[in-house]
UniProtKB/TrEMBL annotation:
InterPro entries: Thioredoxin-like_sf, TMX2_thioredoxin_dom. The keyword Heme does not apply. It comes from the Eukaryota. This is Thioredoxin-related transmembrane protein 2. Signal peptide: none annotated. The chain crosses the membrane at residues 36-57, 93-121, 141-168. Keywords: Membrane, Transmembrane, Transmembrane helix.
Amino acid sequence: MEVATATEASAPAASGGAARQNHPFPWLDAAISEPYYFLHLLAFFSYFAARSAALSADDGGEFHDRLLRRVSFGDPRLLDPDRVIWLVTQLCWLMRIGVGVLVLQEIQAVLVFLVLFVVKIVKEETWETFLADSLLYAKGLLLAVTLIIDYWLTLGYFLGFVVIYAVAQQPPYDGLGHSSHLTPLQLESLLTEEPTSRFWLVEFRTSFSATCIQASSVLPELSNIYSNKNISFGIIDLGHFPNAAAKFGISMWDHLPTYILFDKATEVARFPEVTIESKVSVPKVTKKLLCQHFDLDRRLIEYLST
């Protein structure tokens, strides 16, 4: 029953990933079909409408109050045409200054975002991490800009982002490469009863962990390079099989994702290693890090030389 359930659960994800890769604009398809990206885009584009509404409200309220504070209704100069022209000029000047300061802040926010965007696109290895960090920076800058307009608007956006975080989740990488979704029973069978490969490199992840989502493309991409008859790659979602975590000595709340290299039924190496130092800090998962940690280059050379 466990094998059938896992196979049925992974089938829609695989078909959805294949359909998206065949789409002429996969990024556009993801932005529309994935609630996480769609809600963020909706929030960002709503800024233009909120900005216009907030400025219109200020034009009829704040600037009008400034004008009334400058002149008393009992001032006989109110009937002076020159005085009226001066007041109108002052009002227009205040409006231009207010809008000009806002536009300047918006330009500065866009420039800061572009700098961070370029830095991240150069440094980050996975697309999921890049998108998560870019959205985080965009949300912070949007809150900073709206704070200039109206702090109630800032509070509204902040609550909106909290709601998005609660109801939507960043989707993981939907490709498999040459890896396979496995259940614990399937893995046990592959390691003992059906030794089709000597080595199995298995990623243990959960769908609710942001770290797992951001590293979800690492193992499939490694499998495209290093998968052969000597080593195979698999993925187990501990969110579906939480009892398997204790069996493999994995904490559901720490050090996810966990990668374990099996030589048939024997564990050869794992990342992160269970040590006192690993409880303090764990390096970010990258293809280079896993390749070095599990000696994938050496194992590939050994396979090609036989």
